[in-house]
Structure prediction request, 398 residues.
Amino acid sequence: MKTGLTHLFIPGPTNVPEQVRQAMNVPMQDMRAPDFGQVTMSLFADLKRLFRTKTGQVMMFPGSGTGAWEAAITNTLNPGDKVLMARHGQFSTLWAEMAERLGLDVEVIDVPWGTGCPAGEFARRLDADREDKIKAVFVTHNETATGVTSDIAAVRKALDDTYHNALLFVDGVSSVGSMDFRMDDWGVDLAVTGSQKGLMLPAGLGILAVSEKAMDASKSATMRRAYFEFADMVKLNADGYFPYTPPTQLFHGMRKSLDRIFAEGLDNVIARHHRLASGVRAGVHAWGLSLVAEHPSLYSDTVSAIRVPDGTDARDVIRIAYEDYCTSLGSGLARLAGKVFRIGHLGDLNEGMCLTALSVAEMALARAGVPVELGSGVAAAQAVYLEPVARDMAVAAE
Ligand SMILES: *Cc1c(COP(=O)(O)O)cnc(C)c1O
Prediction:
């Protein structure tokens, strides 16, 4: 018999705030009713603010982030088109695999898991592509498997510096709404996210923001598509309607979650994620463990992938945390299985929750045989969380 709360510290699905859950508890409604469009039109407008785009077209497909990848590819590219991407974690690996399955000619750059997208190497390959054979560049903004954030502005610069015309696709599934994401400033053509991460909703929506250039490309792109056809979606979305039954409950939840994000202020949300993540990282370092991310400039503010020492199976840490302490930690994916556990720190989260994650992880690590000093990670994170207070106190004392 388990008592108390079960803590969710995986990088998606994330915790759904109580107010958002309540907002979804509404009777079924007619998705063709004259007033149905009101809610959805307001969502499109606010999603544009979330992606930081004025000119992009936002779409929501029933599905998940993976479905949004497929929508982005099939609407804007042609069979056999060459695309350039880096593989540096499980999500970029899956995206490359999808691109291959859909019949694209994928030029993959394999870099170590734990590093980011190699913008310099992208620049070299784009520069060498004098005939513009590369039609799109795919970048995973935040590799959720490794806890690495890549520099999208640097990839934009690589495209600009080489006068290259390729479309820029960005997977923002674990970054949009919790990290700095600037669709227009970075010249992103297809930005992809899902409902169950930064947006603090259940899974069920694949969300896209599409630039004017990508909308133009969709008019002549010949890849086969049916359910994910942009043209059908855009036509009905113009008045807030959908070409098929949308998950209306999620829209009511999203209205509430966007209200919460903008009431806090998007910049404050981003700053909070950075502050909470800094505390988690301080805790990991206090344990004497290291992150998969190879350099501080790559550290993700939404997920930390933590290496356990040789001889320890990270799956034991995760199992003990779950079975004995009602806490879900993220697992190591693919080649990182058993070597890594992850703490997801995104969405509806605060200091106390992060300290819970660290304290449970400490107990689970100790029981799995890792020589951590109990309390050390928690104390390091507490010091980070108290920094602004300590500063204020010092100023007041002067
Ligand atoms: C979660 C995630 C996905 C997959 O999204 P689903 O909603 O599970 O289909 C893709 N990319 C990244 C970076 C993710 O974190």
